[in-house]
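Notes to self, S-(hydroxymethyl)glutathione dehydrogenase:
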Amino acid sequence: MQPTSVKSKAMVAWAAGEPLKLETVDVAPPKAGEVRVKIVATGVCHTDAFTLSGDDPEGIFPAILGHEGGGIVESVGEGVTSVTVGDHVIPLYTPECGECKFCKSGKTNLCQKIRETQGKGLMPDGTTRFSIDGKPIFHYMGCSTFSEYTVLPEISLAKINPQAPLEQVCLLGCGVTTGMGAVANTAKVQPGDTVAVFGLGGIGLSAVIGAQMAKAGRIIAIDINESKFDLAKKLGATDCVNPKNHQKPIQEVIVDMTDGGVDFSFECVGNVGLMRSALECCHKGWGESVIIGVAGAGQEISTRPFQLVTGRVWRGTAFGGVKGRSELPDYVERYLAGEFALDDFITHQLPLEQANEAFDLMHQGKSIRTVLSF
Ligand code: NAD
Ligand code: AHE
Ligand code: ZN
Ligand code: ZN
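result:
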């Protein structure tokens, strides 16, 4: 039987800076190469708040935000072969087509097959599957997980072990994979290395886990909110530093603590001043700084070029360099095998309808991750 349009509850972002509003949305059936997914749970990432704030140059409204979800395939469009009804999946904001120049390069996870339409809040055919009373609502990051039902291209779904609890592994759809992957894939931290992590939210704490797994010798965790320090230490941080407790700039404090600087630093906040600090706390000659945080429209990074002339390296990473379809299922297996925990990250669980509270908790510094369920 051909799938038809379904009614779905969703939290809609009508305009930048306004709270999300609960709506009943029409979700059209999946077209060729597309899949409709029933979302079971979704994390709330700082990037959702960033886009809602109006700072995202690609922000487009009205839209259904959310990109850290887990769900079950409800129906498939023509020609879909890699997933079937009932499969458990994690939506991917970084798809993996396997055939574009980027996928074939072996150098990056940034598949570009559908990047242009995705950035405009549209499906690859240039239209949207969401509407209210016939008025189109835009997709977000190709995922839109703040909706009971969403439609994604087949190449934007990682099929995972159905034994994995979706209320937990949804966090692998963004935050945890990003932090762990940044350490393992982008920086390639080695045993004994000294690491500094700036910002101890979901991303930074996952970078701490990644550094601990890589057997880093020293893991310096930095945040202005000291309530994050206990968990950072539990996950492997050897030192916790609050920049507000020091007279000197934080990069000087870290250089002094580490006999000249760290081997690797990770900026997990999205603050361009802190990105400079993260670069400048790296060791002369070889230290590398990885930018993970997302900064607002018009903001730029700066440093003295001498910092790079003298051997420091500035890099960035999206989704931890992880190729979603071929590599994410293994992160789920590693979680199931007990290699790392996700419970520690889930400080709050709320129904979808309370998504605005999840943003409040994030802005107040009270949550690591809120998981919304349906
Ligand atoms: P979060 O809000 O949960 O955590 C941010 C942390 O930074 C908080 O603990 C906060 O206290 C701390 N902080 C704020 N200002 C600080 C400062 N001046 N010095 C030190 N610490 C400071 O956010 P999150 O969900 O962990 O996301 C972090 C950043 O990573 C955001 O910018 C988000 O958009 C970005 N992000 C990027 C990717 C990617 O693929 N590159 C993926 C996910 C998230
Ligand atoms: N749209 C923003 C950039 C936002 C951004 O950098 N997004 C990250 C993922 S953040 C997940 O929480 C990303 O994947 N970037 C690569 C890409 O292709 O979007 C802007 O500045 O325009
Ligand atoms: Zn995210
Ligand atoms: Zn591709």
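- Residues 10 and 47 are 18 Å apart (CA to CA).
- The chain has a mean pLDDT of 98.
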